[in-house]
Structures are given as C-alpha cells and as structure tokens.
Amino acid sequence: MNLKKIRFIINPASGTKSKHSIPELIRSLLDKKIFEPEIIFTGYKNHGTALAREAIEKGIEIVCACGGDGTVNEIAGVLRFSETTLAIVPTGSGNGLARDLKISTHPEKAISNLNNPKVIKIDTCTMNEIPFFVGAGIGFDAHISEKFSHSKTRGFKTYIFLVLREWFNYHEKEFSLQYDDKKETFKSFIFTVANTSQYGNNVKIAPQASVMDGMMDVCLIKKPSLIQCFQTAYLLFTGSIDKSKLTTSFQTNSLSVHTNEKCGHVDGEPVLIDGKAEFKIFPQSLKVMVG
C-alpha cells in the first residue's frame, strides 16, 4: 500500500504557545498506515513558501501548515492551482481560515482528524496580485495589522490592546470603488474584502461570505460613536454586523479601489499599496483537507 507523503511546516513564532510539542503529537496521532510524515520548523519569514514550493517539486501530496493565517498564507499561496493539498493545524492568534472551515483549533484533534479527511476546493483571492485566503483590507484593520506586526507580544489580547489604543486617533478614509460597471465613493473606517466570513477569533466581518461561492464580500463600516462601539463589537461577535446601519456590504468578483492610504493588509500581514488596490477572485483554486 502506497503511503501518502505529508510535509508538516511548523511556524514556531505563531500564536502565544510553544510549538515544540507538535512533532510528538504528529508522531503519536497520525496514522502511519496512511501517511509518511515529514516535519520541518520554519526559520525565517517566507521560509514556509520555499518549503511548500519544494514539496510540490518533490511530489509530496499534502502540505500541512502548523501556524496562524500568516503561515497559511505563505504556504497556500504556492499551493494554489496545483494538485498538492493544503492541511491546517491552527496554532495562531486568529486562525480565520481554519475556523471558517470548521477545522479544530485544538492541535490534538486537528491532527487526529487528518486520518479521516474530506478534501474540498475553495476560492482564493488576490490584492495587487498578492494572494489572500481570509481577507484583505485598507482601513483601520490594516492600520492595526501594521501595529501588530511590530508588537513584541502576540495573541488576541494584544489585538484588543492595539484596537483600544489606536481607536481615537484613526479617522474615516475616502475610498473610490469601481466594480460591476459601477463607480462609487465611500468614507469608511473599516474597509475589508473577505473570502471567509471572519477575521479570526470568531469575529465575523462578513457573515454571509463563503469560500466556495466564487464571490468576494466587500464590507465598509463607518466609525462608530463611543456609545455605538459596544453594539458594533457585539454585532461582530454574533455574526450580525451586516445588519448595522453603519455597514455597507456587497458581493463582487472584481474590484478596483483608489485611496490616499499607503498601507493595506492580506490575511493580517501588512503590505504597501501606494493608493491603489486591485482585487480578484479565483474560484475553486485550492485543495484543502477539512476534518
């Protein structure tokens, strides 16, 4: 019987907990009658990209990202349009794609579930040709992503601290949009193009979004007043932000954006956009194992 080759790529810097127990969990929980595992720790930024590309060249059938959405982005960006399947053992701060795909955020269960997998094909997107799988943004979320990238601590608590610290000094920005033969201009605090329904941590920015519908969900949220902040947070956590009077949302498969902003983010990682962003979607372009 031919064993399936699976390469585990572990990012030791993701999330807040040590990843040194992950190899032992893989060795003890993965079915050796099905898989031939290989385990590698990343050592620098974009190392996961190089390791995933090497896996394709070697004919490895499955590449498992052990990390957060940034790690998944590095690896999945290479696996798009290939026959190599992505698996995820989520160990990051938000784990947006894993949560959206109902992959367990407990490493033990996520690894065990690989023994009885279902493989699906999901949509992938790009902003200025840079792949993303959860979401991309240009407003306050991008501002927080940039601050988070320089933070010495990780995790959800750090996100909350940064949001509270930066909230009062960040103001609505103007966005000129072109999509579906329409041209519109909005002033918005948060501007997100979502592939999944959530940022991560079950914060649902686009509750109706699906990674299998061939459409991007665009969400613009005006800046809430101090009183409205609590209601907005409640709506984000309960999957009802699309019901807010502050929210404008729509679906499209192609979007062009002009703004004075210079910084955006893809899957929580800051990128320079220099005032212009082109968004595209590629339906069913990535194979993913789900438990």
Summed up, the helix count is: 8
**What is the CA-CA span between the terminal residues?**
23 Å
Question: Can you list the strand order of the major beta sheet?
Answer: 6-5-16-13-8-9
**Could you report the average pLDDT, rounded to the nearest whole number?**
92
Structural domain tally: 2
* Spans of at least 5 consecutive residues with low confidence: none
Number of strands: 16
Topology as a string of helices (H) and strands (E): EHEHEHEHHEEEHHEEEEHEEEEE
For the record, the CATH class of the largest domain is Mainly Beta
% residues in beta strands: 35-45%
Please tell me what the overall shape is.
globular
In CATH, the topology of the largest domain is named Tumour Suppressor Smad4
Q: What would CATH call the architecture of the largest domain?
A: Sandwich
- Helical content stands at 25-40%
